[in-house]
User: Fold this.
Amino acid sequence: MEKSNLTCPLYVGFEYEGKKVQEIELLRSNGVAEKVFTEKLPDKSYSWMANVLTIAVKEIAGKPIGMPAREEHLKTRGFTVPKAILAITLADVNSLMIEIHRRVWQNLIPKQECICKYCGTKMLIDIDLEKFKLSDEDEQKLGQDFSELVCDLDFGWEFQALGQKDNQKYKEYEGVVFNRFIFRPPTLGDAIRHEKYSDDTIMFWRRVALDCLIRIEAVNGDAVTQELPVEIARFIGLNLFEKYIDSADLRKVRTILREELPQIPYYYEDECINTRCKRMTPVTMEAPNFFSE
Ligand SMILES: [Zn+2]
Assistant:
């Protein structure tokens, strides 16, 4: 395998110790990698992904990752996930899982059951991971700066200083409707921190959103009229989302955090085998089928 085949682009990218990381080189798989890739952790899918990435990634910002982890695993059967891996955005983690699978594991997943969404025909398909690619819409976004995800709320948050511990301090914000939340991209570290809530999509994303919130603004047209110190939101905690924000706005927040960043989707379209149908139907890769033996 040529070297270039092991270098994957990061569609979002991140900064680590002052260095911009826009691509990642993978190591070829070996016995330790095989063990770690296939050792899935029930209810801890993000921790498992962190293990997979640690073992598969050659280096980040000049620091070797995969080789030291493999050596540690040989000696102790375990290893520590480095901070650099936890700093990768979740969107890039999702894309990297596909890249690792197809570049150093296998690019065909044989005999996966798939149902045509038009005629209901059951098919057994060999999923071809080479066909997974960014949507045209995501292609258009490449090269943008993704460090801030701006979410303009329809209803916003009308701030009430009363009830805050130090309400005199917050008097100037009384009654102001803050209608813009600005987030940093969620990382693998954020997901692992809230992993035990990951079965409950709504609660999981609220917790991640709170951690990723970096600015709160009141906006009128193009002008930012007031900014609320973000520590107030941290102090209010999850109550912010549970008590003060309309559910339509909550949906917007979730959508921004989950869908705004470009990532390789886990499906592609293929022709239905039923000769009377033959329509293009989604072939979906289920995460639990990754890295099967
Ligand atoms: Zn069909």
User: Anything to note?
Assistant: The longest strand covers residues 7-16.
